[in-house]
Amino acid sequence: MSRMKLTNANLLETLESPEYAHVLALFMEKKAKKKEIVFPPHGHDNNVIIVKGGRVRVYLAFGDKEFTLAILEPGDVFSTHTRAYLQCLEDSIFLVCGAERFLQIITQYPAFTLSIIQVLGNLLQNSITIINGLAFKDVTERLAEFFVHTAE
Predict the structure, then answer these.
(1) Residue 120: exposure state from Cβ atoms within 10 A (0-12, 13-18, ≥19)
(2) Domains and CATH numbers, the chain
(3) What's the whole-number mean pLDDT along residues 24-52?
(4) What is the pTM (predicted TM-score) of this model?
(5) Is the Cβ–Cβ distance between 58 and 71 less than 8 Å?
């Protein structure tokens, strides 16, 4: 598994099960093209998104510099009220739900909440790995580690 992939937990499997069909209906579907920036960091929407199809790069940008934080794949969850940019690496489909409604959903359905905790836990682990690499490893070591993880 690449260190950028967030998790093997798949919220889509939970949402697409018959007992959650009414929950899935609360999400709006949004499509985006390859290279498109979706849900920009300075937008006013406060949504939770689940990647339904495609791959999406989550990154920070300052001037002409960019830093990739994660690659979202189908089943991964993210929120639109961060300072990160989301760019489609391929044509993508998102399930979008307002944060307030999403809070109601996770309060009402504990099994769904467990899937989300797994995804967010993996995002935190990935962030700590990135910080550790930047703080304690030189460029050569980070590059070698990246190639090893990519080859797996």
Answers:
(1) middle
(2) 11-151 (2.60.120.10)
(3) 92
(4) 0.78
(5) yes
